From TrEMBL, chain A:
One of its GO terms (cellular component) is plasma membrane. One of its GO terms (molecular function) is 4 iron, 4 sulfur cluster binding. InterPro entries: 4Fe4S_Fe-S-bd, 4Fe4S_Fe_S_CS, NADH_quinone_OxRdtase_chainI. Its main location: membrane. It comes from Goodfellowiella coeruleoviolacea. This is NADH-quinone oxidoreductase subunit I.
From TrEMBL, chain B:
InterPro entries: NADH_UbQ_OxRdtase-like_20kDa, NADH_UQ_OxRdtase_20Kd_su. PROSITE patterns: COMPLEX1_20K. Its main location: membrane. Its EC number is 7.1.1.-. NDH-1 is composed of 14 different subunits. Subunits NuoB, C, D, E, F, and G constitute the peripheral sector of the complex. This is NADH-quinone oxidoreductase subunit B. Its cofactor is [4Fe-4S] cluster. Residues 37-146 form the NADH:ubiquinone oxidoreductase-like 20kDa subunit domain. HAMAP family: NDH1_NuoB. It comes from Goodfellowiella coeruleoviolacea. NDH-1 shuttles electrons from NADH, via FMN and iron-sulfur (Fe-S) centers, to quinones in the respiratory chain. The immediate electron acceptor for the enzyme in this species is believed to be a menaquinone. Couples the redox reaction to proton translocation (for every two electrons transferred, four hydrogen ions are translocated across the cytoplasmic membrane), and thus conserves the redox energy in a proton gradient. Belongs to the complex I 20 kDa subunit family. [4Fe-4S] cluster binds at residues 37-38, 103, 132. It is a peripheral membrane protein.
Amino acid sequence: MGMLDPLKGFGVTLSTMFKKVATEEYPEVKKVTAPRYHGRHQLNRHPDGLEKCVGCELCAWACPADAIFVEGGDNTDEERYSPGERYGKDYQINYLRCIGCGLCIEACPTRSLTMTNEFELADDDRRRLIYTKEQLLAPLLPGMEAPPHPMRLGENEQDYYVHGPELARRAGVPEGRIVETGTEEAGR
Amino acid sequence: MGLEEKLPNGILLTTVEKLVNWSRKTSMWPATFGLACCAIEMMTTGGSRYDIARFGMERFSATPRQADLMIVAGRVSNKMAPVLRQIYDQMPEPRWVLSMGVCASSGGMFNNYAIVQGVDHVVPVDIYLPGCPPRPEMLLDAILKLHAKVMDEPLGPARAALKAERGERTELIPSSVRYAPRGAGK
C-alpha cells in the first residue's frame, strides 16, 4: 500500500473522461447491422416483377419452429404470378415462432426467400406479428410490373433461371446490382 | 388517486394524464425475469454499450415490489409459470409486461410438453418482442414502443371507456424512424 494509491483511483476516473464514449446512440442513430444479418424475411421478384416463389413449401419443411405456412397455387396463362407452373398463393411467417436461423433461406431453390436487415419488429398484438405475403413481398422497382402478367423476359421458366442475370441486364438492372432489393435499397 | 373516478365525463384531466404518463414512462424500473439466453442480451442492454439508463431504467430491480416493468426473457417452463405469476402479483400497479424473445412470446421452437406456449397464458402481455434472441437494439426498440403506449394510456375508468369506445390504437413506429434526428434522412 503506497500513499498515492487512493489518488490512483481518481486518476483512472479522470483519464476515462477523455476517452471515447462506448455507448451507442441507438434510437437517434440507426444501428447498421452486418450485411448478412438475419432480419425480417423478403420474397423476391424477377426483374419484370413476377414472383420468384414457386410454392414448393421447402422453406416450411426446413423450418425447425414451424413458423412458415405456404399454400401453392397453379398459374394459368390468364393469371400468372411466377414463371413456371406453380406460385405461392398464400405465404405467412409467424414472427413469434421464427428464430431467424436461416434454414428456410438455405432450402429455397429459387432464391425467392432472403432476409433483410430490418429488425425493429416488436408489436403489441400477436395477430399483427404473423406477416402475410403482401407484407413480405419485395417492393416493385422501376421497370417492374405488379403480377399477374405474362412472362416478359422469356418463353418459359427455363429462360428465367438459365439466363437470369443476362435478362436482368437487358431489362435495365445495372451491372453488379442484384434484383433481391429491400426497401432500403429501393429508396436510394 | 380516486379523483378521476368521481369526475364527470366532461371534466377531463388531460394535462394531468399526460404528466402522470410521462412520469411513469420516464422512470420505469424493470424487474429481471431472465430465464434463458435472452437474459444475456438483457444484461448487455443494461451495460455501458447500450446503456438502458438513458431511458430512465436506472437499475434492474431485484425485488418485484419496486418494479414497474417485467421483462420475461426466455422460455417459461410449466414449473416456472406459478412463480412468474407470483412475481407479477407482487408488483405494484401500474405494471407492464414485456415478452422478450420468441420462446416467451409463443413457445418458439420449443413446441413440447414442458414449455408454456406463450407467457400470455399466465400474465397479460403489453408488448411482444420477436427474435431468438433479440439483439439489444431490438429490446430498446420494444421498450420505446412500450413508452409510446404508456403515453397514450387513459387515466381512470371514464377515460378508458371513452378510449375503448373510439377503438383507438397506439401507432407503433420503428424507433429509428420515430427518433430520427430532424432534417436527416430522405
